[in-house]
Design brief:
heterodimer; A: 144 residues; alpha/beta; B: Aconitase, domain 3; Aconitase, Domain 2; 14 strands
Chain lengths: 144, 401
């Protein structure tokens, strides 16, 4: 099953990976371990999950304004997610990716989706992000 | 400027506008990329064009050796600090800039980083800033320009949801722990909306509102709240909602505050305590005064700091300069309180690796400590923190809620 969602590219780019879905917002600073890529906000349901190389699907950022610095550092050290899919534009995360692009020519694609599309993505769906904000979703056929 | 313009596109801002003051958060975290960014700007000769204060940095610039910070980390932190002061930022090094120097005025357009300071500037002072993240803050300070959007515009500052305090006894609202507890709750309830709180005491102090802001901006993303009769854009409900109606009304009762308070702790009552952290955000002179009073009350009963417990207070040069001119400094140091300036336990490696349980009166510190420091945390009032530091284990009388 494959379908295409049309989102708004906040930071344009191409990426693909499996979806890591969180229902809760996250502060990257204080919420992401920069050496392991692990979600370390112990209050969140997805605490312990590793974002590295995944397409990280979560509603929006919150908390620390250092999250932009945390995101940029994670992009440089290859700990970052492959891409971010949000429900709401978070200027602080966009900033981390944009400054990384300006300094290192290495941007992390960020796409914002409409509510219905956003919630249609399930854990481990394979997502392909296109520069124009399209998100191609393919779901592995159930093993059962 | 290119970064600012790209951000304007992200935020769908039609044009740029002037700001007349900035507060830099990007000087806080020490990372390879953050250092490279700052040095790139500084080497090119960039200078700020508006008065620009600095958030706490990654190092106590004068006393770091005392806290066992390694030389390599310190050398990089000093380079980062120098890059920002070379750009002519004011070396305030504090996360409570609104209590230190150059407090913004009502309606002033500013570009501030640091989540608690953003919330305080917007809510308590009525200055206008968006949530500026690390790196755009210094870009705004160098150019004096930001995208015209969001909380810079009056129409985007109207309250969206109403939080009503129901049957909360005035004595509870006088306890400092109430404000952090409420902030933690407000942050999780407000989500991405602007809340207005009804029922807060109108004589709440700067330190109490600081605690509320810090907690609300950690559990959530609150950049602006209103409080009826207390904050400057909310003399009445009608003013707070700018004539509109709340999208949602949420009642807050004692039981909600109790739940919020419990949610701030991961450690249990009577757990052995290793470290008390006070001053998140940075301690004011008045908080030093209160701490000295609490310590005196213990020492007059012959009580001392438990040998297994350390007490660290984080503050800034401005508060410390006043402290040095008072009698309180000796009371604190005689008890064994360690004071660190310019920095924060989260950004400088000063918490001993074998630390397992910490206690704090800060909702923000309690929120981030389990993940960032890998410790169990207990939240309590300043009095409960000091009582616990004397006993050597977590001891809360549950005087609040």
């Amino acid at each position: 099953m494959e379908r295409t969602l049309v989102g708004r590219p906040i930071v344009s780019g191409s990426a693909e990976g499996t979806a890591l879905v969180s229902k809760e917002p996250l502060s990257f600073w204080g919420g992401l371990d920069l050496s392991t890529g692990e979600i370390i906000d112990r209050r969140l349901q997805r605490s312990g999950a590793v974002v590295t190389g995944r397409v990280f699907v979560f509603p929006r950022g919150k908390g620390s304004s250092t999250s932009s610095a945390t995101l940029m550092e994670s992009i440089k050290t290859d700990v970052a997610p492959a891409a971010i899919v949000n429900l709401k534009v978070d200027p602080i995360l966009a900033l981390g990716s944009i400054v990384s692009d300006e300094l290192y020519h290495k941007a992390l694609p960020i796409v914002v989706l409409a509510e219905k599309d956003f919630y249609s993505i399930k854990e481990d769906d394979h997502l392909t992000i296109e520069p124009d904000g399209k998100v191609l979703v393919s779901r592995k056929p159930s093993a059962k | 400027m290119r970064i600012l313009v790209r951000m304007a596109e992200v935020q769908s801002a039609p044009e740029m506008m002037d700001v007349s003051q900035a507060h830099i958060d990007g000087c806080g975290l020490l990372s390879e990329t953050g250092l490279e960014f700052a040095e790139t700007l500084a080497v090119k000769g960039a200078k700020v064009c508006i008065p620009t204060t600095l958030n706490m940095g990654p190092l106590d610039l004068q006393n770091w050796r005392r806290f066992g910070v390694n030389e390599d980390f310190a050398a990089k932190a000093i380079r980062q600090a120098k890059a920002y002061t070379d750009m002519e930022c004011i070396p305030t090094w504090t996360c409570a800039p609104y209590q230190s120097y150059l407090t913004p005025r009502f309606g002033q357009q500013i570009a501030w980083g640091e989540s608690n300071a953003i919330c305080y500037a917007n809510s308590v002072l009525g200055a206008r800033t968006n949530r500026y993240g690390d790196f755009i803050d210094i870009c705004a300070a160098i150019t004096g320009r930001v995208p015209r959007c969001g909380l810079h515009l009056k129409e985007n500052r109207k309250a969206q949801i109403l939080l009503r305090l129901i049957d909360i006894a005035p004595a509870i609202m006088r306890n400092n722990a109430f404000f952090a507890t409420l902030g933690h709750l407000v942050g999780s309830q407000a989500e991405d909306k602007i809340p207005v709180i009804e029922g807060l005491p109108v004589d709440a102090s700067s330190d109490q509102l600081k605690a509320l802001c810090a907690a609300a901006a950690s559990s959530g993303e609150v950049a602006l709240f209103h409080a009826i009769g207390l904050t400057p854009e909310a003399n009445t409900l009608e003013e707070a909602f700018q004539g509109g109606k709340p999208e949602q009304v949420i009642d807050i009762r004692l039981s909600d505050l109790q739940k919020s308070r419990a949610d701030l702790s991961t450690a249990k009552e009577a757990d052995m305590l290793d470290l008390v952290v006070l001053g998140c955000p940075h301690f004011s002179f008045d908080e030093f005064r209160e701490l000295a009073r609490l310590i005196r009350a213990q020492t007059e009963k012959g009580k001392m700091l438990h040998p297994n417990v350390k007490v660290i207070v984080i503050s800034c040069q401005t508060s410390y300069a006043l402290l040095q001119r008072s009698d309180f400094l000796d009371v604190l140091t005689d008890f064994g309180v360690e004071i660190t300036l310019d920095t924060c336990v989260f950004h400088t490696p000063m918490v001993a690796p074998d630390t397992k349980v910490i206690m704090t009166n800060s909702g923000k510190c309690a929120y981030y400590a389990p993940g960032e420091l890998g410790v169990q945390v207990a939240f309590g009032s300043m009095a409960e923190c000091i009582a616990s530091a004397v006993k050597g284990h977590i001891y809360r009388k549950e005087t609040l809620v």
